[in-house]
Amino acid sequence: MQTQDDDDAEQVRVWEILYARLKRTLDKLGREDWRGRADYWLISDNWGSKQHKLYITNLDLLAPSVVKQLQNTLAGFPDWEIVVAVYLEEKGYSWPDMGLIVRGHEIIDELQRQYFPTQYQGIKYDGSRHGP
Amino acid sequence: MSSDRPRKKYLKPENEMPETSLRELKDCHEKIQAEITELKRLVALRRRERVSREMKYRLAGLRFERALIRHADVCLKAGFRRDQPRWPKRTEGAGRWSGGAGTEAPSTEPPARPKSRGHHFVPGEFYRNEPLRDETRNVFEKAVTGPLRGQQHRNSKEHITYTKAVEEAFEQFKSRNGIVHSEDVTPEHAKKFVDEIRNSRDSRIRNFNLKIYMREFQFYLRRIPRRIE
Asked: Nearest Cβ partner of B148 from A48, A55, A100?
């Protein structure tokens, strides 16, 4: 019988695998800074859910090829997801909350492109759907 | 002498206020005063009630947090690992852990990332990067809610804002305590700082922590079986 402790141990195991995969992937693409002064911040607190949270602080990392790479890190863990939040320090709270939910089989697009500079407004993700 | 002259002499009899209306006015004034006093009493009462409600709310939050911390502490002390070997079947001590539980040597290196599960009141990103003593860093590492069951990450900015607010609060804490270098922050200071963060009135910190507690409350409330009368 699967107990809560087994679930917890499994959650920790997968969380750590995915954290390492994501870190490896992101480090190739940019620099991490938890104050939002570089390209991204991958939260290192494991809250206990089947999620990772990633702050994108450089819009270049929203490119479909990058998001595809993030999606690939979830291979083998179909019920896990990456919550991607967009945060630009200079915009602060003047931009509403927005982001993506990246799952192995889909991307939920909650970006509000009207706020983006023109060159980023045309970003599209294959197999994505709009969030609520 | 003019001073002997009665004061109201210049008033015509029709302009004089009748004795009855003066009494009425006085009565009215007294009534209004009584009402104001009653209102003041009510306002004070409401204020006391509100403060009491806030205190109860905070107390409940702290009790809940303590329970979570205890749970996390028990898990950590037990040191259970899923992959830990056990004594084989049909041997003395079959099924028991064959060593390692809670015997792992304490690491002197700062952790690559927090090992405890849950929300760290002082975020790992912050205390790992500060030049702190190991024992001070350990206090921050242990200041964690324990696994959170009711939380889901959203695409909000709260987490990054929280971390920045904690960093600001730490600088203020150091300057209030006459500490120049982070290396001089003692474990006692760290405990005091964690308490400050838990009870912070900074909306960026308080709201984030409260939201976490609220979601956990809701999660556990939903799990309590409802009694059918």
From this structure: A48
Tell me the C-alpha distance between B166 and A21, whole Å: 28
- B105 has pLDDT over 90: no
CA B88, CA B39: separation in Å to the nearest integer? 76
CA distance A9 to chain B (A): 6
pLDDT digits (tens, 9 = 90+) for B25-68: 899 999 999 999 999 999 999 999 988 888 887 787 777 777 76
**ipTM for the predicted complex:** 0.87
Contact A47 B82 (CB under 8 A): no
Residue A115 sits at the chain B interface (C-beta within 8 Å):
no
- How many of the other CB atoms lie within 10 Å of CB of A40? 24
Give the separation between CA B48 and CA B56, rounded to whole angstroms: 12
CA distance A87 to A89: 6
B182 near B130, Cβ under 8 Å? yes
Task: Calculate the alpha carbon distances from B49 to B44, B56, B57, B92, B199 in Å.
Answer: 9, 10, 12, 62, 20
Any B CB within 8 A of A125 CB: no
| B156·A8 Cβ contact <8 A | no
Of residues A93 and A59, the one with the higher pLDDT is A59
| Angle, vertex CA A79, rays to CA A75 and CA A85, nearest 5 | 85
pTM: 0.67
**Shortest distance, CA B119 to any CA of chain A (angstroms):** 6
Count contacts between A and B (CB, < 8 Å). 86
- Beta carbons of B157 and A100 less than 8 Å apart: no
Residue A70 has pLDDT above 90, yes or no: yes
Q: Given a cut of 70, is residue B228 above it in pLDDT?
A: no
Q: Please report the pLDDT score of residue A23 as a whole number.
A: 96
